[in-house]
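assembly run, all chains below
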Amino acid sequence: MKKLLSLALALCLVLAAVPGFAAELLSAGDTYPLNSDKTVTWYVQENMGPHEKFVNWTESPFHTGLNANLGVNVEWKFPTTGTTPAVYTNTLMADPRTLPNIMTGYFMDQANLLLEDEVIWDLTPYIQEYAPAYYAFLQTNPAYDKALKTDDGKYYAFGFFREDGGWNDTYLGPVVRKDWLDECNLEVPTTISEFENVIRVFNEKYGAKFSFAMSLFQFNGLAGAFGAYGTSNAGWSWFVKDGKVGLGQVQPEFRNYLKWLNMLWDEGLMDQDVLTLDDTSIKGKVHNDQVGISVTSMGQMNNWNNERIAKGQEAVWVGIPYPKADDGSLSSVMGGFGIGSYTGVITKTADEETMKLCLQMLDYAYTQEGFLYFNYGTEGTSWTMGENGVPQFTELVTADTDTEPMRKYNGMTYGGTGIQATNLLYLKNAPAAIEANNTWFYNFEDEQQNLAVTGGWRWPVGVTFTVDEMDMINIYGGSIGTYVTESFTAFLTGTMDIEDDATWEKYLKDAETYNLSKILSIRQACYDRYLAR
Amino acid sequence: MSKKEKVIIHNGMEIKKSTGDRIFDAINALVLIALCFVTLYPMWYVLCASFTENSYLVANQGILFWPHGFTTGSYKMAFEHPLILSGYKNILIVLGVSLPLNIFMTLFCGYFLASKGMMWKKPIMFMIMFTMFFGGGMIPAYLNIRDLGLYNTLWALILPGAISVYNCIICRTAIQGVPESLVESAYIDGANDVIIVFRIILPLIMPTIAVLLLYYGVGHWNSWFNASIYLQDNELLPIQNIMRSILIANSNILNASAAENDQVNEFAESIKYATIILTTVPVLCIYPFLQKYFVKGVMVGAVKG
Amino acid sequence: MTVNTAKPAPLKEKSFAQRLLSDFQKHKYKYLLILPIIIYLILFCYKPMYGLVIAFKNYRPTRGIWDSKWVGFMWFETFFKDPYFWRLLRNTFTISGLTILFGFPAPILLALLLNEVHNNKFKRTVQTITYMPYFISLVVTCSLIKIYTMENGLFPAIMSIFGMQRQNLLANPSYFYTIYILSDIWQGIGWNSIIYLAALSGIDQEQYEAAKIDGANRFQQVLHITLPGLLPTITILFILRMGNILNVGYEKILLLYNPSTYEVADVLSTYTYRMGLENQQYSLSTAVGLFNTMVNVVFLLITNYISNKTTESGLF
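ok done. output:
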């Protein structure tokens, strides 16, 4: 009981800490249903599709319900099941004459091209009149408005936002076995030295090693404790510091991080299987007491705990803070600003009248009523307002044993064109996962300092390359990613000597033959334009 | 030589078997048994894993001699997929229409390539071979399917794979093995090429036809990519696509966004193996039926009859 | 009427048109048989083939193939200048070469061994069993391989018995080819032997009887009857295989490689996959594909030429 109470208290605290703006959304008034006799086709690449239990969308309460609420006959289209969604979208795009009217997918990178080729509508002249709620929402936060425009100020897309402003973008981080920590009389590690000590003690006492799944390691490691940015994967390592764009893997700080990793590897403290482990195969080690400290996502940590419970064991995995340098500094953790790169655009297959209708339809998700519908479904059916003024799912959802049953009624479980309610994440995830997310996200008490560490260093969402810049990156940037990733493992395993200055110099020089400076200058120009918006 | 005599001679040889022969037979059998064991163990593992509880599977990977905590949960879960029945139905339709089409086209093509004396043989042969190496790629093929009005119909799965040049060449090689005298005497009897193909060639190359049936059939059964981009309605998808969606949804290797969407799934591991069993068993069952065509002496008997 | 015997002298005096006409009359049924195939090829292969021009254009799906900008050989240059070009080529040839060296003869050997088995039940059982792995999805095969080769997995355990150090085999570049080729053989040996079994069933049994009477032993029978009987099939399949020399499937490599084995495992198809499907660089990947095809065709022609010279049988 006491535990439950403290948990509830913790939840309330978190809720208070998260900036809530649901109340600031415009009310839809009596705009909806739109009572249109038009048929609109709406393509959704991923996330907002019907639950796997349904043969197609006509059985899906969320989609049929949305059609009714909008008062428009929407013909929903999705990639066929089992397809790679991005490939499906790319083939669709090959025939601009037959595109669906509304398309949701990843279009930010190509925005300029799509506008220039008149594949999508420039929404600037219409957005204020036909999508007032969305427009008002964008104006509440300059960061939102900035991300959803092109460099010359054109509105072209409806975005995805997290109500929490980036809290859930830090959904992965270090985890530890609490029972071992207690057995060894160790405190939760907060600095990198303490972290290393835990690895050593666990290794001595249990023969366990530091291990994690490669896929997650590509997203994020512990570079922040060394003042470095990024990880083994170049895609995640373009960072911005004091207005300058850089590549994490060629920074001197990153070399220190690599030295540390290489030291663990040499001393046999790091699992050598780390190079081939995926989320499934690491479980074998996790459940055989071969790992006591790791880096993973909240969902995976949840799985580990649940699988232990299924075997009649206790749930022992908890999230621990990203380790800081011994002087308490921290440069980066996995994070973002709660703005997704997943967007909805209106294609030119819609004539002007249809386009205006589409604007109104897309606007719904950003109204008060639409926000609730997109997150919880229909009031009274799938959710009711709790006593604390926070929506709760009804038994229809909570008693349903299917995987993530709320996805039958809502569209925001993973994301889409709309705003994801923080409360939805609380309802969806186990308390331990929420707690872990808190631990990973709240690194500093000062809000600005914390934002700089989580989202601030990241290459921002919404940056748009010009058509020419895209070409240049295609021609020159093909292999730099492979090169840095490969070198990362070579340094890690000792194939390349990280301690040797000459080797490091040669590595930096070789990065140049892969056109590093050229790409950096393109990205810098692009970033400067973004800043100037 | 009559059948009876053959048996006698065969038996005679058995008796006269030398020690060398026996040693060879023994070693041969041992090698094959070893091969079977190496092949079977991972297969057996897949079968056992499909009946094993998930939690046991994730903790004890790779070694399993018997299903642990026997459960059919993963199969139940796979069968709960709403599209699985329509998936089996669709692939049966595709196979039913495709296979006769495949076999006849390949037979015709193989016969043409094996024949001699036509003025246009070289250019046509070149035209056929050329397609084995050059193709327009995914996007033009997609646009072509749209232009021909085949988009979102099962024809989009049947027609683009109606003929494989590789198989035509195999067919041609088999037809070249048919004694020319047989064809010539048929011409003398007044038969035309169409009759020759069906009456003379076809019965003689039955082992090859069986191989081709298997090649085409398994090809259709295993293919998923075309269906994934040429179709729009889930109800039209063949079984392989449905299975793939189950497999990929539960395998983070191919699912890039798995890290963000990790689902708690109590059968996540074992369902992978159940999926394999469900898609493999039907094809495995067909093989023994075709096997009888590979028995020695089919050709000889046919020529004589 | 003897259709197939040529009538030499008078033909030469006829004009081209007349010869054409008589050719059509003489072979009208053969042309009738090939007609549906020609129509099919035009509709489904030649019509979309204009897509190849995107190798010479800066193709953008939204602009269509014709309206995209012409860039000549720029993409080929980009590819040849890529620092990884030589490595990709070397790895592709190595993997393909090893697959041909070990993977190509394996099913022939299996077919020959099976041919020597007299017990039909045993023979069929072996056939059916070896044929099964072909149907296991690569995703599962590769995850099994990963489990067996992990530091504490089955194979390192066996190797440690022989005094070798326990290690993750897939993280060590020197084991990559062995793992790749062995699993390839494991998965394909039964399936690929089917075509040889079919060919074996076409060999006249009387030849064996005659050889036995002449006192030929089993090895001599294999050498003088079975192998020559298989030779046409082997030759054709070998030529076709050589025409695929640069085609190494990307899916298996993607599932098995990791940054520490890129050095030996990164091949043309994985490069094309990264560029084409992941980065959507259709033009570059088409250019690489075209280069790939050209090399393949050259190898096919060389093999075919050698085969025609030595065995007097070939593809054309």
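Chain A touches chain B through 45 residues (CB under 8 Å).

Residues 1-23 of chain A have pLDDT under 50 and may be disordered.

not gonna interpret more than that til we talk
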